[in-house]
Each structure stands twice: as C-alpha cells, then as structure tokens.
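Study this chain:
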Amino acid sequence: MPVSTFNADKPVFTLHRGGKLEVSSTVPLTTRDDLSLAYTPGVAEVSKAIAADASLLPSYTWVGNTVAVVTDGTAVLGLGDIGPRAAMPVMEGKAVLFKQFGGVDAVPICLDTRDPDEIVETVIRLAPSFGGINLEDISAPRCFEIERRLDAALPIPVFHDDQHGTAIVVLAALRNAATLIDRKLADLRVVVSGAGAAGVAVTRMLLTAGVGDVVVCDSRGVLHASRGDLNEVKAALAAETNRSGVTGTVVDAIQGADVFIGLSGGKVPEEAVARMAPGGIVFALANPDPEIHPEVARRYAAVVATGRSDFPNQINNVLAFPGVFRGALDAGASSITNAMKLAAADAIAGIVADELRPDAIVPSPLDPRVAPAVGRAVAAAATAAVA
C-alpha cells in the first residue's frame, strides 16, 4: 500500500479540498412558473412522453451528454490496487477532463467489488442514467471480460480508456513518427513491452492499422505460441503476432527493432537500446519512470516519446477520450467501433501533420483543436457505419 503523503498545507491538497466536481442547474428557478416547469406538475409531461417513446430520453434529460466513469480501484495510475475510495480523486479528475476538453458531463462511480459478475450487473442497472460508460483503472485480465460483456449487453458506448484511449494516441504518435523517419507502418518491426490492458489494446490497434510485425513481451519474456504459461488473452495475442518467431526476453526482442513501445514499467538497459535499428522510435510510456530514460533513448532513436508532461511528445489519453465520447454521443452511437478508434487516431495525428518535428509528433493535451477534431471524426465514422 502506498505511503501516506498527506499534508493539508500542500497546494495539491488545497486544490482537492471538497472535491473537484459539483452539480449545477441548467435552468432558472426564480419564479413559481420556473418551478412548475422544472418540477411538478410540468415534469410529468416529459416523463409521460419518455415512457411512451424511450428514444426521447437523450434529448430531454442529461443522458444524451453524460458518461459514467466506472472503476473498482484495482489498477489506478501507477499506484496499483488502492481500492475504490482512494480511486475517487482520480475518477473526479477524469470527469473534470471530460467536461473541460469535450464538453461531456461525467460522474465518477467507484464500486466496492472486484467480482466481474457484480461489476457487470451493477453497471447494467445504472446504465439508464447515462449515455455512455467509461471503464477506468480496472486490472487485467478482468477488464477484458467486463468490457466485452458490457458492450454486448448495453445499447450505449462502452469504452475502457486504459486500453483504447492509450491505443488511439499511440497509433496517432506512431503515424507521425513514421512520417518523420520516412517509413511506412507496414515495414516497421515493433516491440511492445507489456501485455496488460494497454499492451494488448495497443498491439491490436497496431495490427488493425497495418503495422508489419509486432512482438509482445510480458514480465516473463516474448509471447510466442510455444509458451505454456499464457492466459487466454495472451495466447490469442501470441497467435496474431511475432511473425519472425522471436523468443527470449525483451532484450532479445529489441535487437534490430525499429520501434519500442513501453507499457510495462520494466527497465530496458542501454546496451539493449543500442542494438535497435538506427534512427528508430522509442515510446517509453511508463509513468513516472519510463522504461528507457529519454536522454538515453535520444542517443539511439530519432523520435522519443514518454507519458510524462515534463518531456516532449507526451502520449496522454486526454487527447482521445473526451473527443471519442463527444463524437459517439453526438452521433447517437450504440458502441465504439475499430473504425471510430482509427478515425480518432487519424484526427489526432492530423492536427500537427503540417508542423511535425521530432519533439512534436502529437498535439499538446491543452490544444483546443484536439477534442473538436476527434469528435467530428468519430461522429463521421459512426454515421458512415450505419448509412
């Protein structure tokens, strides 16, 4: 369990005192007429209309613009399994980012259970209050089953941000990095270090986008079909990757690789980085301690990115999830498809496509162009799928 850092005088605790969210009214309540329209008797007319036609719900309640941010607190940031109560500040922060960048209202929901059946049942019962479900900080491999079951059961978008938000931004960054080094995605040999939620989703996204050869490593080494210790998810990944039949550890896999993507927190020695193909790409995304320190990576790679805000090229999920849900809600989408994710990645990459530099392959998380561009692209992809 993390050591307490509580000191009420610290600015971070001052900022968080009382929480980071509040509920405010969108309608006036200053006269008797206001009250009769917002509540009884006027509200009964709206309720009767929705009872007769459920499709009116998103238009005449907050549902059409509101997402539940759901966690069980088992995989929070780099803190790990800290439980639902300690996860609440992070979920509040997520909700603030939804509103600030995407104009999407979000409600943090921290569930005091780790049982996948209970989580799925609870979210299904809560779902009529929301237009989408953002799953957050749920440990692997449980997160895969929970997302799959909720996506199948609910008529609204379900999105596990640790998986797909990361994958979208990584693909956007890789598209632009490949352009800078004058390489096609299909010609790249990529090593992904980490086979948890983010590692699995990033790998699948890269394969969908046409990356030529991806080798995935977990804490025990390279995933390959001959390993007998793989769970169902990793076994499926092994069958779809490692075209060149690499075995051994991440140090073995990285030799001659064009791209390293770190999503594990494990350290990679400098002598291994030196054996990558020259002029390549390193995305060392563990936070706060990258798998390869940027100063080391820059000695051997042409483009370097991290998950940190104090180095260039921050791979940050906030570039994706506000716009993804903005577009999905605007389009009335019932799910978030691969086409919508690819569209989001293309939109993020496109924002800086005309001003690419090795230290600027993705826009800043504070760039006001991002969420609107992603939202439009995602909505267009959703609409095209049903046209």
